[in-house]
Amino acid sequence: MKEKKVTKIGVLTSGGDAPGMNAAIRAVVRTGIYNGLEVFGIIRGYAGMIEGDIFKMESKSVANIIQRGGTILKTARCKEFFTYEGRQKAYQNLKKHGINGLVIIGGDGSFRGAQIFSNEFDIPCIGLPGTIDKDIDGTDFTIGFDTAVNTAVEAIDKVRDTADAHDRLFVIEVMGRDSGYIALHSGIATGAENILIPERQTDIEDVITALTEKQGRKKLVNIIVVAEGEKFGAAEITKIVTERMPEQEVRMTILGHIQRGGAPTCFDRVIASRMGYSAVECLIEGRHNVFVGIVNNRMHFIPLNEAVKKKQKIGEEWMKIVKILST
Ligand code: ADP
Hints:
Blueprint: E1 8-13, H1 21-34, E2 38-42, H2 45-51, E3 54-57, H3 84-97, E4 101-106, H4 108-121, E5 125-129, H5 145-166, E6 169-174, H6 181-189, E7 194-196, H7 204-216, E8 223-227, H8 234-244, E9 250-254, H9 266-285, E10 290-295, E11 298-303, H10 316-325
Parallel strand pairs: 1-2, 1-4, 4-5, 5-10, 6-8, 6-9, 7-8
Antiparallel strand pairs: 2-3, 10-11
Bound molecules: adenosine-5'-diphosphate.
């Protein structure tokens, strides 16, 4: 561990936005100031670091934001940060302000960038997992997942009302290009007939057999939840079910970006606040290149280079629950 004392810190949000990022920024700024640090906001993630879009933050800079979705610091994906030259420009800009510690709120990609940057320029970096997909290994929760999944549940409940009124089957696509967590949680919470996710191979015959069997005993079937990254995709599933079950009216709904926005839930505000506070503590204590996770309700510090996308198998038991509860 290096012993240089951190006195001025920068905070940025990077990659995909997630509700609760503002609560995390607020916690970082206020904990930093409480501990006598100067805190700088960096606009549009690594892009702003390269362009020098950096400003000093005060306690009041983060007033009235804990309840707001999105991120007041804005976020971006930045190709230039993949190059050494880009990262060097970013370092020069930090140096101009005397910034000697960074808090990065983002996903595994942002953490990879932080790790490389930190190794090259000796700036301690602390990551906070901000992603609606909950797909970072090493933490039970990520900032934004709870809000996104609750938004999906609210929307699916509404679709179910109209599905029920017309005896229609809706195939509903939720977010998750690589990850089925939003689908799994929102599908269970809305009593979906089936949940199709990228982590499991979809057997289309199984899907049709289950639907036909339920139809045979006059059980109303309303909802199939499909994650964005599932191999067939919601449109193809809708087409196949329509062809194979011509007597069943089938519609498709894509929930889309509403899942990213909106006021963060209490849960997301609280974990973001705890994580933001912990990130500053980490920098003060001299920790380097970790991200802050929560495991069994305790703060955990995981090396940034271990922040890999969660490629967890969704176990048989989850699918058994879905099957039994939808009979
Ligand atoms: P997320 O953080 O949500 O996973 P991305 O994967 O798009 O989002 O990463 C966000 C940004 O982090 C990228 O646009 C890039 O600027 C930076 N980044 C990601 N991977 C690397 C890398 N291997 N080297 C340098 N920078 C990276």
